[in-house]
Amino acid sequence: MKILFDKTEVLGHGECYIAVDGQYISYIGREKPDGDFDRVINTKDKLVCPGLYNCHTHSAMQFLRGYGEDLPLDRWLNEKIFPAEDRLTPDMVYKSSSFAIAEMIKNGICSFSDMYYFCDKTAEAVGETGIKANISRSIVSFAPAADHSKDNRFLESVQLYKDYHNAFEGRLKVDFSLHAEYTNVESMARFCAEYTEDKHIAYQIHLSETEKEHNECIARHGVTPTGFFEKTGILNNNVSFAHCVWITEDDMDILKKYNSTVVHNPASNLKLGSGVMPLSKILKHSINVALGTDSSASNNTLDILKEIYLAAILQKGIDRDPSSIKAEEIVKLATVNGAISQNRNDCGELMVGKKADIIMLDLDRVNNIPMFSPIYTLVYSVNSSDVCFNMVDGRVLYENGEYTTLDIDKIKHEMKTLRKSFFA
Predict the structure, then answer these.
(1) Are 242 and 219 in contact (CB under 8 A)?
(2) What 8-state DSSP symbol labels residue 166?
(3) Which of 107, 293, 342, 388 has the fewest C-beta atoms under 10 angstroms from its C-beta?
(4) Cα separation of 339 and 343, whole Å?
(5) Which strands, in side-by-side order, build the sheet including 261-264?
(6) Do 76 and 271 meet the contact criterion of CB atoms below 8 Å apart?
(7) What is the per-residue DSSP string for 32-58?
(8) Assigned CATH topology for domain 58-341
(9) How many other CB atoms are there within 10 angstroms of residue 354's CB atom?
């Protein structure tokens, strides 16, 4: 299908036309392109931007939004989340993942990175809704002498990769996941590293989320969590590390050495009282940084535009320097850096030849008038309610409040029913 976006403000390009042919951007320019189009999109008072990336979440935890509030991470997990998850079923994961995807699409997200279990059900939801995702089955292990090749979580990860990696025309990718250092034994980490190294499989891992986790790892192993994963060989793979609130300068050197990605989750880390990731220091080490929301159980929204705003203003306050983080840098975290973290080299930017992942924001809202600069409006003024259009791989998923690939009323009803039955 050939689609033309009428001339409007395009982030990074000024006033331009954009043409889409199938899954790809075929033209960006100030002159109207020749040829016939199946559709011309009205862009009056709109800002056209690349689709956004949510590079750390647990989508199926949507059913736990608002449950277990005002607790630190260890109590939140052990007293509330883990007991609830013990009762989770595949059907609940499918419904919760579908609802999370609906929220992300509405908020301008084109792709997300997910850690959980019953992952085939999340994969099913990704396939149906048209979004992109990197999903992973979270592995935990506590028996150093166990035969890890027979571990159910590991075997589920292997099967998930075989069944779904690059499925749905490449929209779905499968990573491996070690939940964290504190939930895994060293022998499992080494086993997984050896299994995946020559297969070019990527990883998603929680890293140094809390001071307690960080210090207890040093007491256990004599190294930080970053050092732990380096010595086990995990860093020889392409790894995205979520949180990194308590990493040291030496850790940053290690992460840069292995070209790892750090995923900043400011809202979740603040809400759980874990601290704030040292963003400006990490960027000075030239480490790839992406943004994540974490789950709705700890955030409580899947809103990358909120994370963009928080990441920008938090670091300025911490550094006591309004110029320490530029708006252009923050937008990269939510777009091209996210695509890099997911190994999507043809995504993340509005460029000819890249995938047509395009969102539009309504500039006629009271919070966006006047606009002196598109980049500053995007970072400091826009909110998720301004998203009025979301296209992924050239397919419109959301437009003016309407979904094209999912029944939002049905999904909302299922989530309300699930809440009543599960917590009755």
Answers:
(1) no
(2) T
(3) 388
(4) 6
(5) 52-57, 109-116, 132-139, 172-178, 203-207, 239-243, 261-264, 288-291
(6) no
(7) PPPS--SEEE--TTEEEEEPEEEEEE-
(8) TIM Barrel (3.20.20)
(9) 20
2-10 and 46-50 strand pairing: parallel
Q: Which residues of 233-258 are buried (b: 16+ CB within 10 A; e: fewer)?
A: bbbebbbbbbbbbbbeeebbebbeeb
Residue for token digits 């980049």?
375
**Start-end of H helices in 320-365:** 327-334, 336-341
Q: Do the beta carbons of residue 39 and residue 4 sit within 8 Å?
A: yes
**What six digits make up the tokens of 150?**
């027979």
Q: Token pair for residue 349?
A: 């930017």
246: which 2 tokens?
């308590």
> How far apart are alpha carbons 267 and 246 in whole angstroms?
16
Which two structure tokens, joined as six digits, stand for 137? 């089955």
pLDDT string in tens for the chain (424-residue length): 999 999 999 999 999 999 999 999 999 999 999 999 999 999 999 999 999 999 999 999 999 999 989 998 899 999 999 999 999 999 999 999 999 999 999 999 999 999 999 999 999 999 999 999 999 999 999 999 999 999 999 999 999 999 999 999 999 999 999 999 999 999 999 999 999 989 999 999 999 999 999 999 999 999 999 999 999 999 999 999 999 999 999 999 999 999 999 999 999 999 999 999 999 999 999 999 999 999 999 999 999 999 999 999 999 999 999 999 999 999 999 999 999 999 999 999 999 999 999 999 999 999 999 999 999 999 999 999 999 999 999 999 999 999 999 999 999 999 999 888 888 6
Ordered by start, the domain boundaries in the chain are: 2-50+355-403, 58-341
CATH topology of domain 2-50+355-403: Urease, subunit C; domain 1 (2.30.40)
> Residue 398 and residue 102: Cα distance in Å, rounded?
9
Please determine whether the domains at 2-50+355-403 and 58-341 fall in the same fold group of CATH.
no
Partners of residue 391 on adjacent β-strands: 358, 396
Peptide bond connecting 107 to the previous residue in cis, omega within 30 degrees of 0: no
Q: What is the pLDDT of residues 126-153, one digit of tens each?
A: 999 999 999 999 999 999 999 999 999 9
Kindly state the tokens that stand for 17: 């036309």
Residue 361: CA count within 13 A, CB half-sphere? 31
Q: Give residue-wise pLDDT tens across range 320-343.
A: 999 999 999 999 999 999 999 999
Q: Which of 312, 357, 306 is nearest to 52 (CA)?
A: 357
